[in-house]
Amino acid sequence: MPESEDVKQHLQELERRSIALIREAKAQFKNIACLWSTGKDSTATVWLCKKAFFGKIPFPVIHIDTGYKFPEIYEFRDKIAKEWGFNLLIAKNEEALNAGMSPKTGRLDCCTLLKTEALKSLLRKDKFDALILAIRRDEHGIRAKERHYSPRDEQFKWNYMDQPAEMWDLYVKPSEDFSHMRVHPILHWTELNVWQYVQQEKLPINPLYFAKDGKRYRSLGCMPCTVPIPSEADTIEKIVQELATSKTPERAGRSQDKEKAYMMQKLRSLGYM
To answer: Is the pLDDT score of 157 beyond 70?
Structure first.
């Protein structure tokens, strides 16, 4: 079988499993939403939600606005939300921003207040009991400890040392003692899988991912905390080829991943995405 057919079949299986997870979550929870950063992973996940429900996403899509995003992120967000026709909600901690919170005051505090607390406020206001997130196990060591169904308590805290067992595609929903459930439909995908899927489905992609003057962004975050990587990949095809041989970690350009070893683990235990 040609390699392209192998890839196509593998992507079909990944898509089937992800759509099943999304539909199951919608059936199990009363008030669900999907997080969308406008990055490749969350854009692919929003697309999967569209396909799961035949073109119409039956729940809100949430974007967390830290006030420090790239202009291209806001432009892409508004354009795709309008074209795809979903209900876009913005989570933003105006109080913290007005008080001067920024990455300069400390990345742990900044991420906690401008991302986690902003999301907490929106979830409590709208009483969401489940969130679909586009994290993958291969992104970071702490995310490798996740499950497809991952409970959070009232404070959004995650006990990464006490995760429910998931076997044979059976995803157990704890019956009580959780504030909301995190649902991770592309947890089993890789970065290369996502780009191959973007290529196959012809998905729109934030232009920051494409090389300009010998550099491109491989992972999108806030402007002060994200730097580009050296690259000449200015098309999706070239990005796929680049990833097939790259040994550089995906989040090499993200500042919070370069802090002390426990930084990302601490952030996620406190509710960070």
So the answer is: yes
Q: Is the dihedral of CA 165, 169, 175, 178 positive or negative?
A: positive
Q: Is 28 exposed, middle or buried (0-12, 13-18, 19+ CB in 10 A)?
A: middle
How many CA atoms within 13 Å lie on the side-chain side of 63? 22
On the CB side of 153, CA atoms within 13 Å amount to 9
Nearest to 42, CA basis, from 11, 92, 82, 80: 80
Tokens at residue 165, please? 């067992």
Phi and psi at residue 106, to the nearest 5°? 125, 125
Q: Hey, what CATH topology would domain 3-190+260-269 get?
A: Rossmann fold (3.40.50)
84-106 pLDDT, tens digit each: 999 999 999 999 999 999 988 88
pTM score, two decimals?
Answer: 0.87
Q: Where are the domains of the chain?
A: 3-190+260-269, 206-256
Distance CA 31, CA 87 (A): 14
Q: Is beta strand 229-230 parallel, antiparallel or unpaired with respect to 215-216?
A: antiparallel
- pLDDT tens figures, 112-124: 899 999 999 999 9
The dihedral through the CA atoms of 192, 254, 248, 135 has a sign that is negative
Q: How far apart are CA 181 and CA 179, in angstroms?
A: 7
pLDDT digits (tens, 9 = 90+) for 19-43: 999 999 999 999 999 999 999 999 9
